[in-house]
């Protein structure tokens, strides 16, 4: 059961503490408080876990500060969509709104290599009109001898460059809990010129202790990639691990499935699951065409497979795109063969704009049709 409190509820008020005191006395029930920063106000939700079937909705709705009660009707208790639950699916972070209705492009370096490449990429991203990027400082690799990333040593280059070019959010993968402290300390040392979205990679989707640790912090939102060899349900439950620990600002990323059925692409593209995730949960959905396709191969029409896959995801309603770009792909230390050159970024973004326009027209058509059906 979820108790939705009145907007901007004062957590120091007597009424708020009276409500919590009442909940603490419920037998077999644990209350967890979650705050969601919206565009204009802070929303507080209380999740009741345990023996909630015996609770009367009317009794819970009468508690101080409670505006509405939602009876959980799905496995994903916090992130899921429930019966008669019309809460908006969005959150704001460092001046950027993330929702199931908008679209952001995070174009950047899969792996940070040199300060010059970082700055060239940040400049190109800003000049293209984007406010977000990706920068890999920590790189888990299949081969133990492959480049593992510069780690905390490169964080000052990244954060200072982001501040110079007005980049608001950087998606950055972490592989163990120590990375969170390194990122936090480097941001503080730089004067917090930007924000970070922590990324949980596909290899760590079921690293439950890492999920719990990342979920307990609320400084940074989280981008969770689908596990490359597990079911969609298992990956959505991984996202629920994050939310159950306190951080519900989660974006779910589809990045392709590991199977030779997708050959010659690097992974089997799974972007048809975008509407499924949006139907089952309230999370915005990201796509990673770079790692799904894994090459710059193009068809006779001149359009790269990676751009075709991107368009398919955007037409299906994707809310975020994670894209590899590099000033000199042939010199990239990780995944150079799949990276776009910086001069190709405007072409890519225009192609995305066309696909997004098609999605919006399809959405509007569906809404008009349903409205007409309801009038009949």
Structure in words:
Helices cover 34% and strands 20% of the residues. By secondary structure, it is α/β, with parallel strands linked by helices. It folds into two domains: 2-86, 2-Layer Sandwich (Alpha-Beta Plaits); 103-366, Aldolase class I (TIM Barrel, Alpha-Beta Barrel), CATH 3.20.20. β2 and β3 form a beta hairpin. The longest helix is centred in the C-terminal third of the chain and has 31 residues, at 345-375. It starts with a strand and ends with a helix. This is DAHP synthetase I/KDSA. Keywords: Transferase.
How would you summarize what this structure contains?
The protein has helices at 14-24, 57-61, 115-127, 155-165, 178-190, 208-216, 232-244, 274-280, 289-293, 305-315, 345-375, and strands spanning 2-5, 29-37, 42-50, 66-70, 90-93, 96-99, 104-108, 132-134, 169-173, 195-200, 222-225, 250-254, 285-287, 320-326, 340-341.
């Amino acid at each position: 059961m979820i108790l939705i409190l009145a907007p901007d509820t004062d957590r120091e008020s007597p009424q708020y503490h009276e409500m919590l005191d009442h909940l603490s006395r419920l037998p077999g029930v644990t209350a967890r408080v979650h705050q969601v920063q919206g565009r204009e106000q802070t929303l507080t939700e209380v999740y009741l876990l345990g023996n909630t079937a015996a609770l009367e909705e009317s009794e819970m709705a009468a508690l101080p500060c409670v505006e509405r009660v939602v009876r959980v009707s799905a496995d994903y208790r916090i992130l899921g969509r429930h019966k008669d639950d019309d809460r908006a699916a969005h959150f704001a972070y460092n001046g950027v709104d993330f929702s199931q209705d908008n679209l952001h492009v995070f174009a950047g370096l899969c792996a940070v290599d040199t300060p010059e490449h970082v700055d060239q990429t940040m400049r190109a991203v800003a000049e293209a009109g984007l406010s977000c990027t990706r920068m890999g400082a920590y790189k888990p690799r299949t081969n133990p001898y492959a480049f593992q990333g510069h780690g905390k040593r490169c964080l000052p280059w990244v954060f200072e460059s982001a501040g110079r070019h007005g980049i608001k959010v950087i998606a950055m993968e972490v592989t163990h809990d120590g990375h969170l402290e390194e990122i936090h300390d480097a941001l503080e040392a730089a004067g917090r010129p930007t924000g970070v979205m922590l990324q949980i990679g596909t290899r760590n989707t079921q690293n439950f202790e890492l999920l719990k640790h990342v979920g307990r912090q609320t400084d940074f939102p989280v981008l969770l990639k689908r596990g490359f060899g597990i079911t969609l349900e298992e990956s959505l439950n991984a996202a629920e691990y994050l939310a159950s620990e306190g951080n519900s600002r989660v974006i779910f990323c589809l990045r392709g499935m590991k199977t030779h059925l997708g050959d010659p692409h690097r992974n089997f593209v799974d972007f048809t699951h975008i509407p499924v995730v949006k139907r089952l949960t309230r999370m915005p959905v990201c796509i990673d065409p770079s790692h799904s396709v894994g090459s710059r191969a193009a068809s006779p029409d001149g359009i790269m497979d990676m751009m075709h896959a991107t368009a398919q995801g955007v037409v299906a309603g994707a809310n975020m795109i994670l894209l590899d770009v590099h000033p000199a792909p042939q010199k990239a230390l990780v995944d150079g063969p799949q990276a776009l050159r910086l001069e190709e970024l405007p072409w890519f973004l225009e192609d995305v704009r066309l696909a997004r326009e098609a999605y919006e027209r399809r959405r509007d058509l569906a809404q008009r049709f349903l409205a007409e059906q309801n009038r009949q």
